[in-house]
Write a structure and sequence with these properties.
With 269 residues, the chain is α/β, with parallel strands linked by helices. It has one domain: Spore Coat Polysaccharide Biosynthesis Protein SpsA, Chain A (Alpha-Beta Complex), CATH 3.90.550. Helix content is 45%, strand content 15%. A 7-stranded mixed beta sheet has the order 3-2-1-4-6-5-7, sandwiched between helices. Strand 1, helix 2 and strand 2 form a beta-alpha-beta unit. Helix 6 runs parallel beside helix 9. The chain is globular, with a radius of gyration of 17 Å.
């Protein structure tokens, strides 16, 4: 699995920085958002040194925002951003990235698709490496089409980035400063572009399992043709970037990270 489990001298320093911004996007998830936030809050309180939970109500019409605001009123370090219209999960990610107060960021979907064990595993890995990549180890609970698309996405990411990660469509922890320097589109493919570039730029990562809850596709709208098309276009754009940059990141990771941050070093609008 490459150098995914080989921590360098910085691992000890990183381990003391268990500070995480948690973005929870939700669109018409009134039936699930409280359960999701309860799991996130309890895991964060038990496993992190410091944290903030940013709920992004993405133009919901079913009372999701009201449920989230009621939860935030009785739970510290939690706040809600209500979007007037639906802008997509990528826009929620970018909002959280702009507002993040801590050095690491993760996104937990508000539809309760990931199990408590998954959330705890990801949070427990914060600080063990600059990049945390989780993998869904019970993919049999997904529909066959979703399972096939996940395999295609992961194989494509491996081919483009040269890193043998187990899953390219799960939960991740990104280093905020570097993630802010990566220009991404606000659509659903935000994670492909962000993860792909970080895989090329960050030499150390750790992988953890993130099992799904039963029937995770029951409340998902990802299987729209437009979404699948967008993911394909995003993967092609990532491949183009990879061709242009070549293999410099593997040869001189520190220098390339510095160069990329300087070249793209600006807050994403």
């Amino acid at each position: 699995m490459g150098n995914s489990k080989q921590m360098g001298p910085a691992a000890t320093v990183l381990a003391s920085k268990r500070k995480l911004t948690i973005v929870v996007p939700a669109f018409n998830e009134a039936a699930h958002i409280e359960t999701t936030l309860t799991v996130v809050f309890e895991a964060a309180a038990n496993l992190l040194d410091a944290y903030e939970i940013i709920v992004v109500d993405d133009g919901s019409s079913d009372g999701t925002g009201a449920v989230a605001e009621q939860f935030a009123a009785s739970h510290p370090n939690t706040r809600v951003k209500r979007q007037p219209v639906n802008q997509g999960v990528g826009a929620a990610y970018l909002y959280g990235l702009r507002e993040a107060r801590f050095p690491y960021l993760t996104l937990v979907p508000g539809d309760n698709v990931f199990s408590r064990t998954a959330v705890e595993n990801v949070f427990a890995a914060v600080g063990r490496a600059p990049l945390v990549v989780s993998y869904r180890d019970n993919m049999e609970v997904r529909t066959r089409v979703r399972y096939a698309l996940s395999i295609i996405c992961t194989m494509s990411m491996r081919l483009i980035c040269g890193r043998r990660i187990r899953d390219a469509h799960s939960m991740y922890v990104f280093p905020v400063d570097l993630a802010r320097a990566i220009p991404v589109q606000p659509g659903y493919g935000y994670h492909i572009e962000s993860l792909g570039r970080l895989l090329c730029l960050v030499p150390d990562l750790v992988e953890v399992s993130s099992p799904l809850n039963p029937r995770p596709d029951a409340n998902s709208g990802v299987m729209k043709v437009s979404v699948v098309w967008l993911l394909g276009i995003t993967m092609l754009r990532l491949a183009g970037w990879r061709i242009v940059t070549g293999c410099r990141s593997f040869l001189f990771p520190a220098a390339v990270i510095g160069e990329e941050t300087t070249r793209l070093g600006r807050r994403i609008p």
